[in-house]
Fold:
Amino acid sequence: MKKNFKILLCLILIIMLVACNQENNGKEELNGAVDGQKMFSYNSGKYIGKAMGHNGTIEVEVEFSEDAITAINILDNEETTTVAKTAFDQLPQKIIDEQSIGVDSISGATISSVAIKNAVLNAAEQANGNTELLKKSIEKEPKTETIELEADVIVVGGGGAGMTAAMGAEQKGLSVILLEKNAMLGGHTAFSGAFSLITGSKLQSEKYGITNDSVEAVYDDNFKNGGGVNIPEDLQLYSENMGPATDWIDDYIGAPTPNELTPLSENSINRAMIYEDAGDGLKNALAAKLEETDVGVHVNVKATSLLLDGDKVIGVEAEGSDGTKYQVKGAATVLATGSYGARKDLLPETLNNFVYYGAQLAQGEGMEMAQEIGADVVNQGYVELFENGVEWQPGIAKSTYNGSMAAWDVSGILVDRSGKRVVNERTAGINIVKEMAKQEDGRLFLLMDQATYDSFESNITGYGISQELLDRWLENNAKDPPYFAHADTIEEVAEILDIDTINLQKTVDRYNEFVKKGIDEDFGRDADYLTEPIGEGPYYLVEQKPRYATTLGGLKINKDLQVINTDGKSIEGLFAAGDVAGGARGNDSIPGADVGWALTSGYAVGQVLAEKLGGN
Ligand SMILES: Cc1cc2nc3c(=O)[nH]c(=O)nc-3n(C[C@H](O)[C@H](O)[C@H](O)COP(=O)(O)OP(=O)(O)OC[C@H]3O[C@@H](n4cnc5c(N)ncnc54)[C@H](O)[C@@H]3O)c2cc1C
Structure:
């Protein structure tokens, strides 16, 4: 009986095991099959997938086995390296790991990320894969933990100001944590032309031989350019620290510098310098040095609010892109969160017709976090305006700066919808912006003959406008913005944009008369830019709209870069540097004054904190 019972038990166990195994097999089959199809089934091989990125088509080579994506290589693309590189480096592996394009995009490089995913999808279609399955979203465990961190100094934002502030304080022996919401460091600083102002530096006197510059001279030039609405205390702080900051960046950071300075009409003395390889070069130098330091860098972590102990700021609350919560505490918190240019609601209505050419990272979070605890702001309505944007997406611009400048060297002219010139095309940009603002849709049009267009085209491609984009815009022939119209005759090109054809022809004839005489009797265009008549067609009309990225207002600070509240008192524990701190630059900034302000104020706050918190 006992023996029979044992046999029965064994049988039951075997049946259970078989059943269990079948169930598992069933599950595996379920995992491996959708509607009777094998789950990931591809025609194995390598396929080239394509999708539209930020600046043009991104091509990827995707290798498939019979049931998986095994490799993704990024091929041709026109993306801005400084932004897209992190997506190129990280996203392919994420897709391979999850066998899905439903993985999160790389923060700060969303458009390039989406393009990579779409290109993989395109390759999968060619490999006859189950694309619905490939799009499956990845379920993530909700994060419940809160990570607590502590250091002497908390820096929020990893652009030029944040990186210099963090390294300046760390060099003086303070412990520092830097939070950056994007997956990559650099902010707008990395996109910039990296023009900077270097008054009072050894670099200016010894390398470039300029010995007659002074704090007073740079103050006066910036005050004049800033319309006199600069906060004197902030501009003084900027002017005094520009030299030491420049030399510190040269000596300590080692950012490569050019062979010569760039003379600008806004500077009475030669002091504008473009770091080698522009923003990318400057960012790379800062980020490389940062890696050598003990600064605790946390990317993909966004500060959401300031932590208070009574009236004193003792750090920030933050959230990781994976949902992890952070409480980061320190004796001093430095806001270096950059501009609020991407936030139309924080800007005056007068800018509604103008277009934004910066990155979406400029959301003004630092300014708003501080305002929530009573901080005051100054000059909030001011942005740095340029006269050469094309509205390629609603409200969003690309710059034709280099192309437009090249067009004035040949025979480009600016006309309004009535077909008339309205301004000297070579005057200061702000005067052109004023004329644009008078137009109903904020646009003027750059008229070019074929020779001028050739020069325009060869000078704009490569600066965020790829040949591919340009070809698309031309093919569209001004059916939609950006308006790039072309036709064989002046009359035809004018008709496309509803510009008065008779007036436009008269304008061309009159301009050509001025070229013959060497005098622009209407607007005084300099004779140096009046050498070529408007000649052979085809003819082109390209829209030009005012564009902006950098905001010039922001948190009110004192000479120690401490944030001031609406009662005029400094907020204990809270500091600001870079674009988030308003006042130094007034209502307009000299080219270079913005990167200069980010680097100078970042460096300066590091020194102030070392003094206040007992660094060495
Ligand atoms: C295309 C372009 C070209 C330019 N060219 C020039 C030039 O040649 N010369 C010049 O002087 N100026 C130029 N500027 C302006 C200049 O780049 C900026 O004024 C300057 O770089 C600002 O530096 P910043 O450190 O204050 O801000 P940013 O460099 O923008 O850095 C701010 C950082 O803070 C991060 N951040 C924001 N909020 C949070 C948060 N809540 N938590 C964590 N992190 C956060 C952002 O992601 C960003 O990385 C240009 C701007 C653009 C867009």
The first helix runs from residue 2 to 32. Residues 13-38 have pLDDT under 50 and may be disordered. The domain at 45-134 is CATH 3.90.1010.20 (Sufe protein. Chain: A). The longest strand covers residues 539-551.
